[in-house]
Predict the 3D structure of the following.
Amino acid sequence: MGEERAAPKPGPAAATAVELTGFVMGAEEAERAAAAAGVATVQDLLPLLVPSAMERARAPISRFRVGAVGLGASGRVYAGVNLEFRGLPLCHSVHAEQFLVANAAAAGEPALRAVAVSHMPCGHCRQFLQEMRGAAAVQILVTSDAAEGRAPEWRALASLLPRPFGPRDLLPEDVALVLEPHGNDLGGPVANGFARGDLDARLREAAEAAARAAHAPYSKCPSGFAVADGDGRIYAGGCIESAAYNPTLGPVQAAIIGMVAAGGGPAGDVVAAALVEKERAEVAQEATARIFLEAVAPRATFHVYNYRPSDA
Amino acid sequence: MGEEQVVAPKPEAAAAAAATSVELTGFVMGAEDAERAAAAAGVATVQDLLPLLVPSARKRAQVPISGFPVGAVGLGASGRVYVGVNLEFRGLPLCHSVHAEQFLVANAAAAGEPELRAVAVSHMPCGHCRQFLQEIRGAASIRILVTSDAAEGCAPEWRTVASLLLRPFGPHDLLPGDVPLVLEAHDNALGDPVANGLARSDLDARLRQAAEAAARAAHAPYSKCPSGFAVADGDGRIYAGGCLESAAYNPTLGPVQAAIIAMVAAGGCSAGDVVAAALVEKEQASVAQEATARIFLDAVAPHASFHVYNYRPSDA
């Protein structure tokens, strides 16, 4: 792994953590923050933002907080944190790196260049990151290395998951990957769900848009989920599938990421939700969405809107 | 990674039989059977036999969604050989899928295997599987060979898990060194049963007993919510499994999947053959399986009866 380069030794002012004010930082703001922190580049700023990201983690089961901060090709900076949900199997958890990718995708980021993360990414995350074109070249730095007596250094993802299994093993080259535009054809709606009010209509619209943008090239069952909080604010997300199947981020988790990233409360603040998915989907989300809501927001209303693909 | 790789020995020209695959008759092969099969195939060791068994393993995969069968064959310290295949379940999110390497580990654990030495697998293990394998003590030194390398113009070679998942996150990051890992004996104290489930028949009683034994043997050091699941087929045969948690949480194998693995491994049935099931888990568990078990059964075996038996830990 000789290609690794040690992170530049920060000047005295840069040794302290820098506070995040949200989950996305604009390119100009990031440049200013880097200058104020006394580091040469925005990439060098990322590790200084990690402690602040960690504080936003929601880990009621493990109490093990993980924070990740990434730099996009656009110059924008994205944060990600781990989320855990009581009363559900562990596969409902969201890893910080997954949160970061979903956050970047929602913002229309075309590519991730570098990610600083508080703890060494697990195999599940190294796998999830393969869904991005050019994943091998994404630079990773682990800030906890310092506490373990190592100099934190940037290393290519390829060095952390050699000989990866990924999209190229299953998909033609021209299929859109994560962070690339998706326009899934949802076909015609099935008359099994009617939006009964303005909030319902807005939830349906948001879930449908999320399903159109979802990354579901393996199952061909794109799905979108939208949630509303008590103030009527709506947050939505679509599934982000993984070539390895299990690391897939479900649409429910993607919507909760949207809510947390926008500064919303915890999942328990959800008062209404909507799911848009294929009729009789081979990979179906409805039952799982119901048990998620029953566990974390039992009083939330929930509507499901199915669609029948045009080729059905 | 030069020092990690050992090229798989080229079989002698005389042992032309070694070039062909060897048929499996089940999901576990005893040590003596494995030695005999290696000799018959003309290979020097049982480890060299593993790649020849992979094509036969792949045929047992159940992949209605992807159509992408994966087979894995592993050698234990006991000399026994274990098979794993991938399983997919229609109508459920993809996180319910079982990877071949997970199946293999659960299969070995159920047989009381103390250690895995080597695994030959049809396709390069994904990151999720490389992570799941970390739950085994000494995972770093397990040897992996990918048989599909041959089709891609590479000589298949044995390499360590350590070389495939550098600087792993794993149990050592979260647990004290003396906590038992997968393939080590577990005896979870379940505490007292809660009177919310009564076994109404002999089959119910046997299912409960099997699920309880599976919960006692489950690997749940992270959530401290061990759970066990048992299923019965139409002939009254019972198969059970306990959760196998992962330090990374999401790669955890749920108790439902563990029981289905046992069912498939015992004779190649599918989840749709389940007629009755039972879950044993902690009351008000912070990591609870009941609702997920219900949706699994609704999707794959909708006519199966299902009972849940909760327990209240003694320290509650």
Observations:
- Chain B touches chain A through 56 residues (CB under 8 Å).
- Residues 28-173 of chain B form a domain with the Cytidine Deaminase; domain 2 fold (CATH 3.40.140.10).
